[in-house]
Design goal:
alpha+beta; SH3 type barrels; six-stranded antiparallel sheet; 6 strands; 40% strand; iron; Ferrous iron transport protein A
């Protein structure tokens, strides 16, 4: 079974961040509060599906779906 990413979540679905697939992007994500072990929830999507809005570390974070695909989860 392949790992799921945040980009695979449906609106309202929660998951736990496990790791990152892109080392350079992971530094940016860590600075934004996306830490391994943190709970993350997809709260909204733009009408065409990109960007998306996530709730993590107590705040809402908007990011592109391609960026979200680098955050691996365990739902």
């Amino acid at each position: 079974m392949s790992k799921r990413s945040v980009a695979d979540l449906k609106i309202g679905e929660q998951a736990t961040i496990q790791s990152f697939s892109d080392q350079l992007m992971s530094l940016k994500l860590l600075e934004m509060g996306c830490l391994p072990g943190a709970q993350i929830c997809l709260t909204a999507k733009a009408p065409l599906g990109d960007p998306i809005c996530l709730k993590v570390a107590g705040y809402c974070l908007a990011m592109r779906k391609s960026e979200a695909a680098t955050i691996l989860i365990n739902s």
